[in-house]
Fold this sequence. Notes:
The chain is of the alpha+beta class. The chain has six helices and 14 strands. It has helices at residues 44-58, 129-134, 136-146, 171-180, 200-210, 233-238, and strands spanning 6-7, 16-20, 64-65, 75-77, 92-95, 101-106, 110-116, 121-127, 155-158, 168-170, 188-190, 195-198, 215-218, 247-252. It starts with 5 loop residues before the first strand and ends with a strand.
Amino acid sequence: xxxxxxxxxxxxxxxxxxxxxxxxxxxxxxxxxxxxxxxxxxxxxxxxxxxxxxxxxxxxxxxxxxxxxxxxxxxxxxxxxxxxxxxxxxxxxxxxxxxxxxxxxxxxxxxxxxxxxxxxxxxxxxxxxxxxxxxxxxxxxxxxxxxxxxxxxxxxxxxxxxxxxxxxxxxxxxxxxxxxxxxxxxxxxxxxxxxxxxxxxxxxxxxxxxxxxxxxxxxxxxxxxxxxxxxxxxxxxxxxxxxxxxxxxxxxx
Length: 253
């Protein structure tokens, strides 16, 4: 087993956090590395152990809290540790309780970690295109504010996700974003006929800035292009692979 790689954001200095990729872990084959996806089809014993290893790499001794992700704009507030096996249906979670490791799984979607250090409140969001467009980051900020955060103090970091060069979409996808806001056209570059390249990371950063988050860091790491470091749903799909692994991003107090 290789050493687990923990990627950190300068914006979150002083906060226990990490964007983890596939390096380290016990899984093998197409899942090789630190696959934490319970529903991925991987050996569940390996996945369970990988989840423990991931949490230990970021916040030793903290129980890992995750949600059953549904590509929504739903955020849940965790005020007590979840019971074993319980995963609320949502795509973001926030807490002010020390000793919990909040985890978001991705495999091309954008993981976003949040912190208001002064208030002692953190959050994590899974922002795929659907959740990002629906406002999952806005919902996370509102949930943090509901337990005492101030958005003027919240800092956010956007972790490894599929980059524009790797994210080809059709004209219907472009129209969906432009119908929501014509200014969203700026997140698309021309591609082949009737296709475009979508910049998910920049879109998420813009949503955060519009929401009033003053300090935002985007790591600029492409999950699709960097097979050695990251799992990628789209890469697996393009190769005709039957399944794919998931990586995790974690934050806690």
